Description:
The protein is of the alpha/beta class. It has helices spanning 37-41, 43-74, 98-112, 133-143, 160-169, 171-174, 188-197, 214-234, 236-243; strands at 83-86, 91-92, 95-96, 119-122, 151-154, 178-182, 201-204.
Amino acid sequence: MSSDGGDFVLPPPPPGPPDSSPEGVVEPVVPRFRLPRWWRRGGWPRTVGLFVCAVLVSVLYYLVTLAQVWRAGVADHGSPVDAIVVMGAAQYDGRPSPQLQARLDHVVELWSQGLAPMVIVTGGNQPGDRFTEASTSEKYLEANGVPASAIEGEDTGSSSWESLKNIAERADEWGVRSIILVSDPFHSLRIELMAEELGLTAYTSATDTSPVRGWTAAKKHFAEAAGVAVGRLVGFDRLESWIG
């Protein structure tokens, strides 16, 4: 009771610390990160979870690589370089196969555009063959307007890696550092990465008249994506030694 007979009034509570946050602003609640249950449980759940994650990452990596293989196959480099390099393919006793002829016809187009002062033909021969892929390509290019003086040959390689490695070893002799690689679309990314691994500045311009089409071309895209995916991880030199 108060001294004048009224009700007793409690004193007000002491003031608390000042509110530093702006009026009306609610501080966000930061959720706590929790590891997945399969990880926290350990043992087999963790092992299975890691396996599933590895599979998913591998599939994503492969699909990205497959998209890059397709993209490289439609690329068409149009700036000047030191040389145009045509990758070899089958020849029949001095006559280019339809696949090789499609590549060579594309080289003739690039040559007519003045993109390089030199064409390098590649590819050896199979046991019993009288002609190499390189010599067959050279003869065809000469017959279609490319001067013999502008053609150099690499006729000992039995694979894309060997052919490009031999070119890289003679690059200083030929004065070649930048190249346009001509092949089938599905082949383009792998040879570009090989050439770059060997120290060359490489671009691609694939033929669009290859007889390899449809499901056959699709299967080759899938196979090339696998090769590129592995080659990027271990190096194309090591991959070549594995597959011979």
